[in-house]
UniProtKB/TrEMBL annotation:
Stated family: Belongs to the DNA polymerase type-A family.
UniProt lineage: Bacteria, Pseudomonadati, Pseudomonadota, Alphaproteobacteria, Acetobacterales
Organism encoding this protein: Teichococcus oryzae
Entry keyword Acetylation: no
Region (Disordered): 302-325
3'-5' exonuclease domain ranges (all copies): 343-543
Name of the protein in question: DNA polymerase I
Length: 954
């Protein structure tokens, strides 16, 4: 959202210009930015207005910044246009607009008219066509045109008299920017798009050709027709075949992406003349919507300000009763009236002292670091930002060099700007950052804490800490992202300066340490300012949103736990990795030979296209389906289905693919990530990514190592303990099934867990009416499949596919399961109902898990959302249990006098490095903590193993 208030300047006369200048605003871009940036809001009569408010705010701000002689906002009139007659699948997969957005479309057009700006739309044509037609018509009259949009499809219109303006970056897009984006000049953009296609709009293009290849071809052959004419002579066989086979698709694609610049003009150009809004009309519109903050900031409130304000409430619960007037108001920048900047650049102790004093007086300070790397364990500090009050922030540069191009010919080297030494800054800041009486507020605090705790940065133990990312995540997991920029737009109505804006992009990007100090300060200090404002806006919501205990007792305490785990890392045996890689390569060669023999000829096993032709064109295997581009589908689901029917070739290809993936990801990739300083890998745990509360890991991703395969076990054997130590693995046993027995309160399952029985054998006996000694391996296998499948909302069709049985038989098994365990079906229906009513479900510990698409009209999307609603409490509950164990573990080990280190968390497993002399004591301590962190209707059980490597311990 815009960072500035709508100014009374828009009520003044328009600026006179030397030549005609038409501004065409892409209305759809504004609408969807506004809708997704702001939380749900309703006006006093219950009509949703978050998109209306955001659109009105953005358009008002735009009018204060840009002046033209003519202006219009262009909208899409309908989903169906002339392009659907050309290609019936054009945009066919796009979902309907969210139901809470639909009533806002008409209001947004009213808002445009209230500003005195022309609205343009026409049935049968897209907004882009009308933009092209008006641009052509106005240019013919000798005027200049600016199109306010970042839509790549409009780049074909760029020429000397027509430019685009990126509405987010406020940057013009002219021929150089188009050339950087597409690799061709604007007049050839449609040829590139015709070849590359566009999955967003279902433009097919030519399979296998992307933007870069398309640009190279068009630059070589001139245009699409020139390329197609020369296609028979192209040397690369795959490319030649793709072009010849899909020539007509490419021509159709070009028709789809080419804008109709001869479309009819719904309103004459002279009716687009820019004029100031009528204050009475604009005030009336704002008052009707309940936009009191806009009325006030525009000086239009007078004595007739409305008595009620828009009410924020969950997007998926329109049936909730209205809150009392004025109790919850729209979230706008009015909460903090101070502007975002200008900020102060601090270059000495004297300049820093007032900020330190203000932080101590306030008892809170927002902190942000600027570094030269995303790897916290290797990054160097470039600067530090502080914010002590909204709008009052500073940047302390520490390692800035001269900006590129500075200096003069008489100097041997450009001179670095004046700044504090790192030693002086740390000496001044360390007492503040370690002061227990001052709260330090950060966003994604784990990263900054890892940077600052390193010895070369003063070994600062920052405490106490609040993290605005985790505050948001504790309340809104699954509802939206939790990055600072997104939260700023959503909760503050402010778009922060982006990293790209200060450092550039692509080859032109410069390190942050070379950014001029005025720009670096505007960017870095704003981050601290935004973080502080987010803390002021979000922290008070924790208690009413019933997320305070979750945040304080679990999420906030996880920061230090994960920081220490990432710093510790885990040792990897490089020589063992090499041996594994060689073994995988040799096995892949053998598999390739066997696959070629089964196929009857050699082919590229890694080529989905060639594999599809072998399976379905030559061997005529059943079940093949072609994609929209005409190629056979050969994804894992297809191959698994064929393998389950007894076909050997797809089974071996699946094995080959698994080896290839493991080799590239975990053999070669893992070897590249071994830190040469300690021979350990230091994974990065992401704390606010998943919708269920589970952690994820990257660089390397340790979540996806296969658990039950020999190959996965081989890779785990490369993770080793230091000499004199062992690795100890503690894994929760069947935790999701225990949560199922707890939530659904199933007596027989509870009894089985309490007695320590095999839960799958017990289930088989119950649903197949067998005596315990009659349960064979097949019955247990079927029971195990449905036990785990039910947690994921598996259908009869899914069970039939997994077990290789008819759908009718699978249906009867599920019916028997629910008949024997009726509480499970009741719990599943309760969860779906809760999700539909509230938009979220809750874990057994109260965390809200928002379910996207639960109100969708499309059955497939709604069905996926219902399955997610069923599964989320089990995954989320399991995540919370292991997190609770993790935050208790360091203290428990310390109080027991044990020196074990917790290294990894993967799914339901914790991995420790333990001195050999402390194995038994550590195992007992870990077991006690893990099995006592939650009180369920069934006992928690942790299975513990140990050994010289992870494979043995697991």
């Amino acid at each position: 959202m815009a960072d500035a208030a709508v100014s009374p300047e828009i009520l003044a006369e328009p600026v006179k210009e030397a030549e005609p200048h038409l501004i065409l605003v892409d209305g759809s871009g504004y609408i969807f930015r506004a809708f997704h940036a702001l939380p749900p809001m309703t006006r006093p009569d219950g009509v949703p207005v978050n998109a209306v408010f955001g659109f009105t705010n953005m358009l008002g701000q735009f009018l204060t910044r840009h002046a033209g002689t003519h202006i219009a906002v262009v909208f899409d009139a309908s989903r169906v246009t002339f392009r659907n007659a050309i290609y019936d699948q054009y945009k066919a997969h796009r979902p309907e607009a969210p139901p809470e957005l639909v009533p806002q479309f008409a209001l947004i057009r009213e808002a445009t008219a209230a500003y005195g700006v022309a609205c343009i739309e026409l049935d049968g044509y897209e907004a882009d066509d009308l933009i092209g037609a008006y641009a052509k018509g106005f240019e013919a009259l000798g005027g200049q045109v600016t199109i306010v949009s970042s839509d790549k499809d409009l780049m074909q219109l760029v020429r000397p008299g027509v430019q685009l303006l990126d509405p987010i970056k406020q940057k013009p897009i002219r021929e150089p920017e188009v050339l950087e984006k597409f690799g061709v000049t604007p007049d050839k953009v449609v040829d590139v798009q015709a070849l590359a296609g566009d999955s967003t709009d279902n433009v097919p293009g030519v399979p296998g050709i992307g933007i870069k290849t398309a640009a190279a071809l068009i630059n070589e052959y001139g245009d699409l027709e020139g390329l197609l004419a020369a296609a028979p002579g192209i040397k690369q066989p795959k490319r030649r075949e793709a072009l010849l086979s899909n020539a007509e698709l490419a021509r159709i694609s070009k028709k789809l992406v080419t804008l109709d610049c001869d479309a009819p003009l719904p309103r004459p150009i002279d009716e687009l003349l820019a004029r100031p809004p009528e204050p009475g009309r604009l005030a009336g519109f704002l008052r009707e919507q309940g936009f009191r903050s806009l009325l006030h900031r525009m000086g239009l409130d007078g004595d007739a300000a409305p008595e009620t304000a828009p009410v924020s409430r969950p997007r998926f619960a329109p049936q909730l009763p209205e809150a009392a007037p004025g109790t919850v108001t729209e979230i706008t920048p009015a909460a903090d009236e101070a502007p975002f900047g200008p900020y102060e650049t601090v270059v000495d102790e004297a300049g820093l002292a007032p900020f330190i004093a203000a932080a101590r007086e306030a008892g809170v300070v927002a902190v942000d670091t600027e570094t030269d790397s995303l790897d916290a364990l290797h990054a160097n500090l470039v600067g530090i930002s502080l914010a002590v009050a909204p709008g009052k922030a500073c940047y302390i540069p520490l390692r800035h060099g001269p900006p590129p191009g500075t200096g003069d010919m008489l100097q041997e080297a450009p001179v670095a700007p004046a700044q504090m030494s790192q030693e002086a800054a740390i000496a001044a800041l360390k007492p503040l950052l370690e002061d227990p009486a001052v709260m330090k507020v950060l966003h994604n605090a784990k990263y900054d804490l890892e940077v600052l705790c390193r010895a070369e940065h003063g070994g600062i133990a920052v405490s106490p800490v609040d993290d605005t990312m985790l505050i948001s995540y504790s309340m809104d997991a699954g509802r939206h992202g939790h990055g600072m920029d997104e939260l700023s737009l959503r909760h503050l109505g402010h778009r922060p300066i982006t990293y790209d804006e200060v450092t550039g992009t692509g080859r032109a990007r410069i390190p942050f340490g070379q950014v001029a100090l005025d720009k670096a300060t505007a960017y870095a200090a704003e981050d601290a300012d935004v973080t502080l404002r987010l803390w002021r806006a979000l922290k008070p919501r924790l208690r009413p949103d019933q997320a305070l205990a979750l945040y304080e007792q679990v999420e906030r305490r996880m920061i230090a736990v994960l920081r220490d785990m990432e710093i510790a890392g885990i040792k990897v045996d490089g020589a063992e990795l090499t041996r594994i890689g060689e073994d995988f390569s040799a096995r892949m060669v053998v598999l390739e030979k066997e696959i070629h023999e089964l196929a009857g000829k050699p082919f590229n096993v890694g080529s989905p296209k060639q594999l599809g032709e072998i399976l379905f064109d030559e061997q005529k295997l059943p079940g093949g389906k072609r994609g929209k581009a005409g190629a056979w589908g050969t994804d894992a689901a297809v191959l698994e289905d064929l393998a389950s029917r007894g076909h050997e070739l797809p089974r071996k290809v699946l094995h080959w693919r698994q080896l290839a993936k493991l080799k590239s990801t975990y053999v070669e990739g893992l070897a590249a990530q071994i830190d040469p300083r300690d021979k350990r890998v230091h994974t990065d745990f992401s704390m606010a990514i998943t919708s269920t509360g589970r952690l994820s890991s990257t660089e390397p991703n340790l979540q996806n190592i296969p658990i039950r395969t020999e190959e996965g076990a081989r890779i785990r054997r490369a993770f080793v303990a230091e000499p004199g130590h062992v690795l100890l693995a503690a894994d929760y046993s069947q935790i999701e099934l225990r949560l199922l027995a707890h939530l659904a309160d199933v007596p027989s399952l509870r009894e089985a867990f309490e007695k320590g029985e095999d839960i799958h054998s017990r289930t088989a006996a119950d649903i197949f009416n067998l005596a315990p000694d009659q349960v064979d391996r097949e019955a247990r296998r079927r029971a195990k499949t449905i036990n785990f499948g039910i947690i994921y909302g598996m259908s009869a069709f899914g069970l039939a596919s997994r077990l290789g049985i008819p759908a009718a038989e699978a249906r009867s098994i599920i019916e028997a399961y629910f008949s024997r365990y009726p509480g499970i079906l009741e719990e599943m229906e309760r969860l779906k109902s809760e999700a539909r009513e509230k938009g979220y479900v809750t874990t057994p510990f109260g965390r809200k898990l928002w379910i996207d698409g639960i109100q969708a009209k499309e059955q497939a999307r709604r069905g996926n959302a219902e399955r997610a609603a069923i599964n989320a409490p089990f995954q989320g509950g399991a995540a919370e249990i292991i997190k609770r164990a993790m935050v208790r573990m360091p203290r428990a080990l310390r109080e027991a006098g044990l020196s074990a280190r917790m290294l990894l968390q993967v799914h339901d497993e914790l991995l420790f490095e333990v001195p050999e002399a402390e194995i038994e004591a550590t195992a007992e301590c870990v077991r006690q903590v893990m099995e006592s962190v939650a009180e369920l209707r069934v006992p928690l059980k942790a299975e513990i193993g140990h050994g010289p490597n992870w494979g043995v311990a697991h």
